[in-house]
Amino acid sequence: MTVEAFAGAAAPPAADDAFRPSPLEDAGRTGTFQLVYALDFKRAYQRRTETIARKAVEWAIREGAVPKEAVRSTCLGIKFAVEFDRPYDGARALAEFAVFGLASQGCEDAGRVCWFNLDGDSLARERETAVATVLHVVRERLDRLELQDLGTRAVAQNIVVQGALRAADDLDRVKAALAASVRLEFRIVSNEKYVSPDVVDFVTLDSRFQGRISLYQRGGERHLEATDGDGATGKDILETLVEAYASSLESRGDAAGRDVWDRVFVGAQDAPSLPPSDSPAGTTAPARWRTWLLEPEPLVTGERVVNAAVRLDPDAVRDPIYVILDFDAEGADQFGKATEANVRRSMAVVLDGTVRSAPTILEPIRGGTCRITLGTGSPAELMREAEALVVALKQGDVAASLLLPPLSELVEPL
Fold first, then answer.
1. What is each CA distance from 106 to 96, 200, 401, in whole angstroms?
2. Same-domain pairing of 150 and 72
3. What would the pLDDT profile of 273-298 be if each residue is shown by its tens digit?
4. Exposure pattern of 55-80 as b/e (b: 16+ CB <10 Å)?
5. Within this chain, do residues 213 and 362 fall inside the same structural domain, yes or no?
6. Going by DSSP bridges, is the β-strand pair 102-108/221-227 parallel, antiparallel, or unpaired?
7. For residues 402, 332, 366 and 305, what is the CA-based torsion angle, rounded to 10 degrees?
8. Per-residue model confidence as pLDDT tens digits over 64-105
9. Residues 6+ apart with CB under 8 A from 198
């Protein structure tokens, strides 16, 4: 299994005791397994190249006073060219532009075209970052399976997953979780009215929702809310309602109403939940969830996100903890145009159908970088929410980074 000229997959680790689950006393164990996945760094390299190419063009515009319409970049794998409409007097300075981990290949055509590629150190950093990100997300996915005795580790450029088998479908569940693709979208929150008296009646008359779902009303806004408790999460309660009400609209022949409710999503409240003032120290309030009606088409998808990171500004009066994300060139263009057309509206960050955040667009966001604020809450809660959002933004990298099927698969029955 190869990854073209970008990076060959390292040999899988030997099937020895160093990579097997430790002996367990649990009598329910029927065997052990080990899966080894090779990582494909091609996409990470390409995205990094596109990002740096865009920054190099911005450098030429900013430092060299080159008109925006007179400079552009072309990417070829881990190489890119900065092209000018006319010979550029600062081509030599641009050729020495190495702050982003570049290796210059020189300029040609009297300084009209300058070539660069990522240097060895930059490629190594990209591999290290990609391995750490994929390992983190793999662990988060497997945690959701609630299987005992699962272990994951990075070995060279491979991800090793090992564990004990108890149920017949344990191994299939692990493989399916790692093979699943993740859908990340940025969508505008709709201003349409969707919580009608009919919806309220539906909630009131259905025993599944009585006393568990509340109606929020303020000004012209109406949405539904639910809180974790009584053996069910608020998210599950609201998702059950959305599906049930949409089905009822379809059975009544209300196609227009069904189309609207197909765009109703569930997500966490804007601000992290805070415990009541009389709660014991260290406790938190149950998670709160709400419904969102989103516009039909996404502004941009997660395929265009290059990087995401948590930032902390201890001197900030407002929003000291926030998330920064970078788009590739195509995503930057899409995002800039979309945010310009939707200033003062809310933009939902939607991961696998769940709204993770819905910040307000304060101004057109150009240049391929945007800042997502998280509302109010304690520093610890905001940091947890920011870190969770960064993981969400990076989730889409896993399906593209893990080469499927596994490089090797070992199952040992007892």
1. 9, 68, 32
2. no
3. 333 334 444 444 567 899 999 999 99
4. bbbebbeeeeebeeeebebebeebeb
5. yes
6. unpaired
7. -10
8. 888 989 999 998 888 999 999 988 777 667 666 655 567 788
9. none
